[in-house]
Design goal:
14-stranded mixed sheet, seven-stranded mixed sheet, alpha/beta
């Protein structure tokens, strides 16, 4: 074959192969048309789904955000309810006793109901309702027995009460439960600012002002580290807790406790186990010192140290503004309490029978009082112009007797029923005890085995037994209530064998004082009910 013919044939074969490849490519392209269309349709569908999902997600976020805002508004409304209730409670510390029987407008309901509501200020549309949660085993708050129906009696929550505040906003609600408790001088059977005798017991000394300045320091502040200035080496006088003494209730002192022997602090049950009375001092680090060597105090459930300092108000004069003029007296005034009324002997000798005051407060003012009190032979006939309240009797009501000068207890003070008595003196709360000091003989009118059912506060001085170092022993001084004083006052004298003069002590705490107080009783620089715990209620 000719060369050119071979070239032409080769070209034809190359061209034929090219045509074959083109034909095969066309067939493949035609075969892929359906797949491409399907992919295009699927892509479009996927994009549509993404857009729909994005729109749904945005709408969901909007709804979630709106619900979240309403939840927050409901929660804030619940807190507003708590604040409103706390405000009323601090205006009237017995507000809780009135259950739902309080002036309108209010948002109070018995437990299980939120019908009575109030709007939150500000126009948000949110509202709140408050439910009064009864004590364990009770069904509702009752004004006939508020203590029994509202106040918890268990050891863990003793003396507390609870409310539930529910906030509402646009269909959402949030509930908060608050537990209220009190902290004050009436939390304790025994309270002192200073564990030293009142400097009045030094008598008429020229360095009396130095004694008050020096002895109004705690032991941890160095009171006993040096003598009283200008006294010639006299130290502030220490009063000691001794073996055999029992403090039947909670105790607080801003000072260091001084102990001999094995006194017991806090109550015990029938098996001798401590019931959890709180024993505390503001002193570090141990809270007490051994005065005699070998002291072994029983602090029950333990002694807390470095406690906060509680400071009583400087005066009781505000109490005269808590009552009406007919229950404000001037000069020495005697009150013989009865179950339904009281017999009052005024300064001028006139006698009148009066109902208990609606306010619950009686106040005795000074006319003129130039008498300097001494426990060593006080003159009971002098100083009639002093604002002294002289008290005794049996009562069945709530009453606070306040004196610009002293309160003098002239006989048993006992309660009937649910009565509650407060005694508040700017200076001393004293026990009447006439004694012939020349012969150390108790005189007519001396009170043996005296009982006092009351909450006692001596703001600037002490609770003290007149002539505490004179006469034969007077038996037992029983206090059912609470005792608060600036300086620790003596009620007797003891040796290793027991009392030599005056009284042995039997002081027992009145548990009601944890949640109910005598009318307008003074708290430490005004402590009142406060929220001890609060938590969301998911129930």
């Amino acid at each position: 074959m000719h060369l050119n013919e071979r070239r032409v044939g080769a070209k034809r074969r190359v061209g034929d192969r090219a045509k074959d490849r083109a034909a095969r490519a066309g067939r493949r392209l035609r075969a892929s048309d359906g797949y491409t269309m399907a992919m295009t349709l699927m892509g479009g569908l996927l994009m549509s789904m993404i857009v729909v999902s994005a729109v749904a997600a945005v709408n969901g976020d909007i709804n979630t955000t709106r619900a979240d805002v309403d939840h927050k508004r409901a929660y804030e409304a619940a807190l507003t309810g708590l604040a409103a209730y706390s405000y009323q409670l601090n205006k009237d510390q017995n507000y809780w006793e009135k259950c739902t029987s309080v002036p309108s407008p209010n948002a109070l309901n018995q437990v299980g109901s939120t019908t009575n509501r109030r709007p939150v200020p500000g126009g948000s549309g949110a509202t709140y309702a408050i439910e009064l949660i009864p004590a364990a085993g009770q069904t509702s708050c009752s004004t006939a027995d508020p203590t029994g129906t509202m106040i918890e009696q268990g050891v863990a929550a003793d003396g507390t009460f609870r409310i539930r505040s529910t906030g509402f906003s646009a269909g959402q609600d949030e509930a908060v439960v608050a537990t209220y408790s009190k902290e004050g001088l009436l939390d304790y059977i025994y309270f002192t600012q200073y564990e030293t005798m009142d400097p009045v017991t030094f008598g008429a000394v020229p360095w009396a002002a130095d004694a008050y300045a020096h002895c109004t320091r705690t032991r941890q502040e160095g009171r006993q580290s040096a003598p009283i200035p200008n006294s010639g080496g006299v130290f502030c006088l220490t009063i000691v807790f001794i073996g055999g003494e029992q403090i039947n209730g909670p105790l607080h002192s801003n000072d260091t406790l001084v102990i001999c022997g094995n006194p017991r602090f806090g109550r015990v049950d029938g098996s001798g186990n401590p019931i959890g009375d709180h024993i505390e001092t503001a002193a570090p680090p141990t809270g007490w010192v051994d005065f005699c060597g070998g002291a072994n105090p029983n602090f029950g459930s333990g002694l807390d140290t470095n406690a906060r300092v509680l400071t009583p108000p400087p005066t009781n004069t505000t109490l005269q503004y808590k009552t009406t003029s007919s229950y404000i007296f001037s000069g020495r005034t005697k009150f013989d309490l009865n179950t339904t009324n009281m017999t009052v002997t005024r300064y001028d000798g006139s006698i009148v029978t009066m109902a208990y005051p609606a306010s619950g407060v009686v106040y005795v003012k000074n006319i003129s009082c130039g008498i300097t009190y001494t426990p060593y032979g006080p003159n009971y006939s002098a100083g009639t112009g002093c604002g002294d309240a002289v008290v005794k009797g049996n009562y069945d009501d709530r009453l606070t007797i306040a004196a610009e000068n002293d309160v003098l207890i002239e006989g048993n003070l006992t309660r009937s029923g649910d009565g509650m008595l407060g005694l508040i003196a700017n200076n001393f709360v004293r026990v009447y005890h006439p004694c012939d000091r020349s012969t150390s003989t108790n005189l007519a009118g001396a009170l043996s085995n005296l009982r006092i059912d009351a909450a006692i506060l001596a703001i600037q001085h002490s609770f003290i037994n007149d002539n505490f170092d004179c006469g034969a022993p007077l038996g037992t001084l029983t206090i059912n209530g609470a005792l608060a004083q600036r300086f620790r006052g003596p009620v007797g004298q003891f040796n290793a064998s027991g009392p030599v003069h005056g009284y042995s002590k039997n002081y027992t705490y009145d548990n009601r004082l944890k949640y109910v107080q005598p009318p307008h009783f003074l708290d430490p620089v005004q402590t009142a009910w406060h929220i001890d715990r609060q938590s969301l209620d998911d129930g």
